[in-house]
């Protein structure tokens, strides 16, 4: 199967665009937003808040799975050439990179890891997020049913008030009927929103992310079985790959030493040129240079003596200040 790292994100946006098109095609004139503004129970706003939370979580999970798939493709090209022995982690923020690093650590300790169980542990966080999105969809359906019951309760309350006002209070009768109609609208629209947002949209988003997790699991396990299984047990091929990796590392170190030796050689040549220049100086220039060196040395000695004198003066000053602070005048004797 061809590796498609952007499949999950592409399916997510396709389903989101399809849902938006269906809404503007069928429900734009249904007056849903007007009912939301007139809902006294606010259950519809709670349903929308849970839907936005589930939508944001599914988008974040789709982006994370896409990044993991891209990292898996890069790791596949590296492991195909160097094997698991030559694999190096460039970023530990990716679950697939941590998975192969754990396999390499287990191989270095001469133990045989359970590749499938280890991969399930690394991808468990994505599976939990996908199940949480599905749970949010089921919760929206439950909230829709709760809104239905609350709307029917408001309807019965309004009808009861209208029946009590029948024949003697026209205003109370109309107010009760409005309350009953508002309750019926709440009951129907909460059921509709819970069923569509939770039972359809979020469940499909959860299914998309679940397939993304399963696809990432299959790709990673395929890389492990095809390119890394030979490194799990001692064999001639494993030893050859280990020697190749060590030779490559040794070659990199040799190149570094060669560059360091080249820099040292350049520095030694510059030093030798400076020495040759000093040898080519005339007697007068040498004498002038020696006099300058002697003058700098004397200046250094004078500055050193001055620093010592200043230190002694500061020490004496602070000692006298302490003595003054400790001095207390005697009290005159009582007459």
Radius of gyration: 41 Å
Q: Could you report the average pLDDT, rounded to the nearest whole number? A: 78
For the sheet with most strands, the description reads: none
Outline the low-pLDDT stretches: none
Number of strands: 0
What count of helical segments does DSSP give? Answer: 9
The dominant shape is elongated
Description:
It is a single chain. The mean pLDDT is 78. The chain has a domain at 7-232. It has helices at 7-27, 32-38, 43-82, 95-108, 115-122, 124-164, 170-228, 236-279, 283-326. By secondary structure, it is an all-alpha fold.
A few lines on this structure:
The chain is mostly helical. It is built from nine helices and no strands. The protein starts with 6 loop residues before the first helix and ends in a 9-residue tail after the last helix.
Write a concise keyword list for the protein shown above.
335 residues, 9 helices, mainly alpha
Break the fold down into its secondary structure elements and pairings.
Blueprint: H1 7-27, H2 32-38, H3 43-82, H4 95-108, H5 115-122, H6 124-164, H7 170-228, H8 236-279, H9 283-326
């Amino acid at each position: 199967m061809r590796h498609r790292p952007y499949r999950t994100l592409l399916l997510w946006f396709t389903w989101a665009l399809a849902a938006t098109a269906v809404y503007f095609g069928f429900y734009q004139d249904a007056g849903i937003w007007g009912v939301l503004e007139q809902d006294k129970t606010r259950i519809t706003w709670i349903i929308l808040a849970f839907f936005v939370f589930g939508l944001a979580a599914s988008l974040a999970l789709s982006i994370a799975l896409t990044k993991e798939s891209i990292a898996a493709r890069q790791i596949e090209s590296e492991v195909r050439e160097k094997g698991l022995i030559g694999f190096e982690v460039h970023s530990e923020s990716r679950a697939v990179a941590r998975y192969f690093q754990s396999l390499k650590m287990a191989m270095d300790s001469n133990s045989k890891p359970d590749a499938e169980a280890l991969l399930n542990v690394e991808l468990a966080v994505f599976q939990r997020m996908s199940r949480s999105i599905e749970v949010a969809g089921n919760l929206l359906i439950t909230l829709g049913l709760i809104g239905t019951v609350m709307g029917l309760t408001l309807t019965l309350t309004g009808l009861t008030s209208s029946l009590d006002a029948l024949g003697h209070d026209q205003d109370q009768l109309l107010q009760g009927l409005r309350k009953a109609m508002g309750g019926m609208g709440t009951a129907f629209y909460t059921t509709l929103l819970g069923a569509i947002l939770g039972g359809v949209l979020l469940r499909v988003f959860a299914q998309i992310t679940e397939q993304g997790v399963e696809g990432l699991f299959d790709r990673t396990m395929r890389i492990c079985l095809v390119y890394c299984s030979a490194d799990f047990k001692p064999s001639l091929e494993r030893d050859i790959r280990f020697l190749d990796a060590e030779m490559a590392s040794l070659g990199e170190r040799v190149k570094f030493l060669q560059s360091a030796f080249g820099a040292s050689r350049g520095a030694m040549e510059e030093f030798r040129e400076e020495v040759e220049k000093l040898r080519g100086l005339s007697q007068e220039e040498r004498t002038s240079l020696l006099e300058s060196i002697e003058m700098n040395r004397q200046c250094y000695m004078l500055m050193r003596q001055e620093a010592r004198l200043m230190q002694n003066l500061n020490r004496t000053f602070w000692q006298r200040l302490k003595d003054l602070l400790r001095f207390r005048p005697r009290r005159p004797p009582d007459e």
